[in-house]
Amino acid sequence: MITWWVAVTSVSQARWIISSGEEVYVGDHVALAQHPDAVGLIVGLDTGHTGWPEVRVTEGPKRGQVLNVLPSDILVKVRR
Hints:
Blueprint: E1 5-6, E2 15-17, E3 23-25, E4 29-32, E5 39-45, E6 53-59, E7 66-68, E8 74-78
Antiparallel strand pairs: 1-2, 2-3, 4-5, 4-8, 5-6, 6-7
């Protein structure tokens, strides 16, 4: 599956198209592909070189860590 993503210079406007086809933004809770229990909050974007979302893991083995993840590694938006 091809995953398209879009990131802009303003963090508040950053958005990505994830593997489910949904559009996600900074502030959305998402399920991650790295572990069945991994859920996180998109807290920003990596402006260094990738433009990938930065996700603070809130549930799962890497809880508390902030990870740069590929949009295709985000499975679905979690409704909270």
